[in-house]
Amino acid sequence: MAGSQRLRVSWVIALAVAASSPCVARSAPERPDRPLPPPPPVFQVIDESPGMSLHDEMYVLPYTHADMYHGSRSEIVYQLSVKQTIFTPRLYFAYRQLSFWQAYNVKESSPFRDTNYNPEVFYRFAQRPWAGGSLGADFGIEHESNGQRDAVSRSWNQFHVTPAWQHGGLLLRMAVRWRIPEKTKSSPSDALGDDNPDITDYLGYADLHAYYRGESGRQAHLMVRGNPVAGHGYVSLNLSRNMPHEPNAWFVLMLSHGYGESLLDFDRKVSRVGIGFMLAR
Question: What pTM was computed for the model?
Answer without folding.
Answer: 0.85
